[in-house]
Amino acid sequence: MSAIQGIQLSKSYRHYQVLKNVSFEVARGECYALFGPNGAGKTTLLKVLATLQKPSSGRFEMMGYDGIRDRNQVRAILLMIAHGSYLYSELDAVENLRFAVGLRGLSPTAREIKLALDRVGIGAFANFKIRSFSEGMKKRLSIAKAMLIRPKVLLMDEPYSSLDERGITMMNHFIRENLEQGAAVLMTSHNRLQSAEVAGKAGVLLQGVLREITVKDLVAAHELF
Hints:
Elements: E1 4-13, E2 16-26, E3 31-35, H1 42-49, E4 57-62, E5 65-66, H2 71-77, E6 78-81, H3 93-102, H4 110-119, H5 135-149, E7 153-157, H6 165-180, E8 184-188, H7 192-196, E9 201-206, E10 209-213, H8 215-220
Parallel strand pairs: 3-8, 3-9, 6-7, 7-8
Antiparallel strand pairs: 1-2, 1-4, 4-5, 9-10
Helix pairs in contact: 3-5, 4-5
């Protein structure tokens, strides 16, 4: 059974078709890296898979659950790290984590929260308001949240954006750790070399059409689109 399976997914906004019969599979313990120019539909695909938008046609499954019929079950097993942070600027880092994981019915200990913040490199800023955080620090906090939630499916929109070299290394270590635990990862990216370090599959989304490529070709290609 595939962890994530898209079956002829299409999405249109009025007369504009963003996704055109997109089909793919991601196995447990596998990372799929999705590339494409701005406006190609990458984020739209993630939003459909995260059940934030309904496809115009087609269907998808996640860990055996139907993405439309079993929406609540799908939401319980996935986490989407979006391009924006979606954090509360007037709360500090610890408060943001407690609120986010509390929505999942989880109650991490103070030690677990400290460990997550230390692992992503912002432990010293645990009690700082988010309004004082850089974009890179916000991304690190989002990863700390994922560490505490431990989703079975992780959707990531531009995971390397706003991160410095050490942050990128931390991100790939985090992705590998999730894969080793049997999670499935689907991420959009513009960073081919860093993505190739963790991806087992890759695809290019261009004008709504998905074309799969090997990770070897991902690295070797002069241009993808």
